[in-house]
Design a protein that fits this description.
This protein is mostly helical. It is built from 17 helices and no strands.
């Protein structure tokens, strides 16, 4: 039996392979991730549903577009009033009503998010340069490699340990096939894959929560890294003070952590398990019937194109499962941006219930099209890179 216990070398290999995969994922996927966040939060203009905006004028007045619309309405009303002096009172009254209606419609447009359309997406892309879509990438680029390294290292180590238990439980020594050091990557159960990936996603969510909230604010407001960190520390669910207590300020970086944990832990489990399932199906299709019956099928020899296709499918399945929670997460982060309102911010559950009541279940899938489109190329870049780098390092 080949010793499957992880060593310093195997952990190192997982770290390096994960780092390479993480950098590739950020470079390929960040612009589309920015578009997704902007669609989910109505281009940063809305962090919460309409009733909240109506009950607090600060939410609307803090939006640049709201100020612009209000200014236009005031100018139009003033112009109508000056014209009224030389016209009949009836005309003046009608003009005033029309302009008030215009102002009301403008406020409603800002406060009420609508379902994204191809025209809205096109308008969003036209309003933001490619450089702006890369806003917020500095943080992930510096840290994504390290976080991915930790994620994949935990995943690889737990998966290796579970495969050892699987062999002991089955009463086998791995001799049903030609035993190799990487057998755990090909012959373990999908249950092992799901458990390992759930643990790795949950463990790293502690570190990714501050990164994601800062990145989201950078994407919405086109802020610098430092500005987003300062805003998160000073404004959030836990404090509205200019000089918040240190502990409360740090807690702001974990706003909506329950939703974030679900996205990371469950999303990672679905992601990796789907990837392994698709790979093994391709391997079975390419193998002899005898090998399939003898459980000797290995995904070692599937092509790069097949791996990329499997990864793209896994990414789409993953986002289909966690997307509503991701929308809630983005809205929670958006409502915490420079939140000076006296009202307490909504929790994730309250926000989800209010969105469904006011806008229907479609509101939970705002931006799903661009996200699915993003999931394919990003996953196709990340997982095959991890596979090949890990295999290359392990071959030494």
């Amino acid at each position: 039996m080949v010793d499957q216990n992880y060593s310093v070398k195997s952990v190192r290999n997982g770290l390096l392979a994960g780092y390479s995969a993480g950098i590739c994922g950020v470079i390929v996927g960040h612009p589309l991730d920015s578009v997704k966040v902007l669609l989910q939060t109505n281009n940063g203009g809305v962090g919460t549903p309409t009733s909240r905006s109506a009950s607090s004028n600060s939410a609307s007045s803090s939006s640049p577009s709201a100020k612009s619309n209000a200014g236009n309405a005031d100018t139009a009303i003033t112009r109508a009033a000056s014209q009224a002096s030389s016209s009949s009172s009836t005309v003046a009254s009608n003009a005033s009503k029309a302009n008030v209606s215009t102002a009301t419609a403008s406020a409603t447009t800002v406060a009420t998010p609508t379902s994204p359309t191809p025209r809205a997406t096109s308008s969003l892309l036209e309003s933001r340069s490619l450089r702006a879509l890369y806003a917020g990438m500095s943080g992930p680029l510096l840290t994504a490699g390290a976080i991915r390294s930790l994620n994949f290292a935990v995943y690889d180590s737990v998966r290796r340990a579970l495969y050892q238990r699987q062999l002991q439980s089955d009463g086998t020594d791995g001799t049903s096939h030609s035993a190799r050091h990487d057998d755990y990557l090909h012959y373990d159960s999908l249950d092992n894959v799901a458990i390992s990936s759930f643990i790795s996603g949950g463990a790293t969510s502690i570190f990714t929560s501050p990164m994601v909230i800062v990145k989201t604010k950078q994407q919405i407001m086109v802020w610098g890294f430092r500005k987003a960190i300062e805003d998160t520390f000073r404004h959030g669910r836990n404090t509205q003070q200019q000089r918040p207590q240190l502990l409360k300020g740090l807690r702001n970086f974990y706003t909506g952590f329950g939703v974030h944990f679900y996205c990371d832990a469950v999303g990672t489990a679905v992601y990796f398990t789907s990837y392994e399932y698709f790979k093994r199906k391709f391997a079975e299709r390419n193998s002899d019937e005898e090998d399939v019956n003898n459980s000797q099928v290995s995904a070692r020899n599937i092509s790069l194109g097949e791996r990329m296709l499997c990864a793209a499918g896994a990414g789409m399945v993953c986002w289909g499962v966690i997307f509503p929670a991701d929308v809630i997460r983005s809205r929670l982060y958006a409502q915490s941006i420079t939140n000076e309102s006296a009202m307490a911010p909504l929790t994730g559950f309250q926000l989800a219930r209010q969105m469904v009541q006011e806008q229907g279940f479609r509101s939970l899938y705002r931006g799903v099209g661009i996200t699915v489109a993003r999931a394919g190329p990003v996953a196709a870049a990340v997982l095959p890179v991890y596979d090949y780098v890990l295999a290359w390092l392990s071959s030494d």
